[in-house]
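Write out this protein's structure.
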Amino acid sequence: MQLKYKLIVIVVLLSASFVYSQEKERDTVYLEDGVKANVPKVKWNDLINLRGYTQLRYNRIGETNPDLLCEQCDRSWGGDGGFFFRRIRLIFFGDIHERVFFYIQPDFASSPGGDRQQFSQIRDAYFDVALDSKKEFRFRFGQSKVPFGFENLQSSQNRIPLDRNDGLNSAVANERDIGVFFYWAPEKIRERMRWIAMNGLKHSGDYGVFGFGVFNGQTANQPDRNRGAHWVARLSYPFKFDNGQIFEPGIQGYSGNFVLPNVTEGVTVANENMEFTDQRAAITAVWYPQPFGIQAEYNIGRGPEYVPETNSIENRSLNGGYATLSYFIDTPSYGRVIPFTRYHNYRGGKKHELDARRHRVSELEIGIEWQPIRNLEFVAMYTFSDRTFEDALNPYNNQRGSLLRLQVQMNF
């Protein structure tokens, strides 16, 4: 038997022995009368929780332009798209120690492009290590969301519009990367964040009052292509007023060098290693919907962008943002109804797309979300879009159109 197979057998046997011994271990405790009693220890599988959600979409009703596409948004836009799984996610999580929390989230609806759909891919795989008993100070190791932008940090399970805005989401494809992040928040503020989330007010998740981190910078599930790391910092604080209203402003920024993954042959690039400055700063303002809500963000920066006039890729300035208005209506008989509207725009390149594709986006969305029960949500959203997206294969490409987009989501 080859050495590597012997090692595998040894590891499996040792693992099985460890699990068996753990299940048989018992703690000795003392009852009130001083009598000893053996109580089973908590098993490792008692510490693992499971939840998830699934999103099914249809975008063909009222579609006026089949050439209107959005690669980073929903791949069933335009073309011959029909019913489409946007998300199929299972989340494994739990406190495996009083100061160690783990979180693993695969997605079974990844679409790498072409005719390939429903691929499994890791979205999150990290663990948090708390430095204190209140978990106010913690480090996060692994692949997780980069703390840049409130809407980027919002789960697709909670966000109201069907896709994230181009302006800030163009910073980090899939919102994630591998790295080490530090988060701090006082216990009182962490409780406030949990209250916002538990009451369905579309929170971003607990990413601390202050966050700082270093990460590869090539986005999720991509190999690092240079020796330099990106860094990011974020400051965000949810203020609570006497009437119960909560307002959360924030500021964030990141910097690093990005290596282009896909460049068409013949395109002129400023340097041979295809490495470009990648820097952004953004502001956030969130007035949580009780019942009227406003969520707005804007970012500026520099990054690679395709220039059709010269068939080249250059470092250029970029900017973009959005504003979302919503109103929460709770009914005892029909659940929660949320009418909303969002306008967003973006001018700049998308570094992770072919040739750092040049984008000029102006889009208005009007929709409604209905939650008859906590486990079921329906969204109808009409989109008016004006998109320019240009690369070496399609250098002069402006598409305008509108479409009705539908989604049903199951939470479990």
